[in-house]
Write a structure and sequence with these properties.
The chain is an alpha/beta fold and 223 residues long. It is 22% helix and 30% strand. The protein has one domain: Metallo-beta-lactamase, Chain A (4-Layer Sandwich). It is built from 6 helices and 14 strands. The strands form 2 sheets. Strands 6-5-4-3-2-1-14 form a 7-stranded mixed sheet, covered by helices on one side. The chain binds nickel (II) ion and manganese (II) ion.
């Protein structure tokens, strides 16, 4: 059974196909985190959207300790390898790989990064599709990503300043048309939106069929 736990900020622990897949596991120094990196005892796949500290976070340490496969853009994969991660899948935008029975597609994101380009991920297994947009501004091809992959759940940044704010994030939801949207990348820093309230209001206006599930850090949702 699929389960999506919010680790705070852009971090998620996804249980899928009897595997544990982490996305952007930043726990050390994350003011919203309800657990420590060392509390993660098992991980099979770790996907990292880009190399900013609030996303790369504890990914390398977790991969080394648990033996999980690191998935990121090519140049970030090289960095993970150089830092001692054994299993690295360094793909690029548009590519799909099967990792431990989970299909992972890398899609574009409009943001910045030092190593390679920033990205988002579409993750599929057990007939469930999850789209983690990474850090991004709004872009029109979100519609195409939605049409091609038909996500059950979209994980979308709403915090403004470094990514979309609530209004543009609601436009993104309208383009992607997931069944459920889980907001992320807010509350963490003083410059980010303090709550999901405005986002929920804008989604009601622009995409009323989409259900917003605003998790508390540590809470899980089962699609
Ligand atoms: Ni970033
Ligand atoms: Mn970020």
């Amino acid at each position: 059974m699929a389960k999506i736990r919010w680790l705070g900020h852009s971090g998620f622990e996804v249980e899928l196909a009897n595997k544990i897949l982490l996305i952007d596991p930043w726990l050390t120094g994350n003011p919203l985190a309800t657990m420590k990196a060392s509390d993660i005892k098992k991980a099979d796949v770790v996907c990292v959207t880009h190399d900013h500290g609030d996303h790369l976070g504890d990914a390398i340490e977790i991969c080394k300790r648990t033996g999980a496969t690191f998935v990121g853009i090519y140049e970030l994969g090289v960095f993970a390898k150089e830092n001692g991660v054994k299993d690295v899948v360094g793909i690029n935008i548009g590519g799909t790989v099967d990792v431990e029975g989970i299909s992972v597609t890398m899609v574009q994101a409009f943001h910045s990064s030092t190593r390679g380009a920033p990205a988002g991920f579409v993750i599929k297994a057990e007939g469930k599709t999850i789209y983690h947009t990474g850090d991004t501004g709004l872009f029109g091809d979100m519609k195409l990503i939605g049409e091609i992959h038909l996500p059950d759940v979209a994980l979308i940044p709403i915090g403004d300043y470094y990514t979309m704010g609530p209004k543009e994030a609601a436009e993104a939801v309208k383009l992607i048309k997931p069944a459920v949207v889980i907001p992320m990348h807010y509350q963490t820093f003083p410059v980010l939106s303090p709550s999901a309230e405005d986002f929920i209001k804008f989604v009601k206006e622009k995409a009323p069929k989409v259900k917003v599930v605003a998790l508390k850090p540590g809470e899980a949702y089962q699609p």
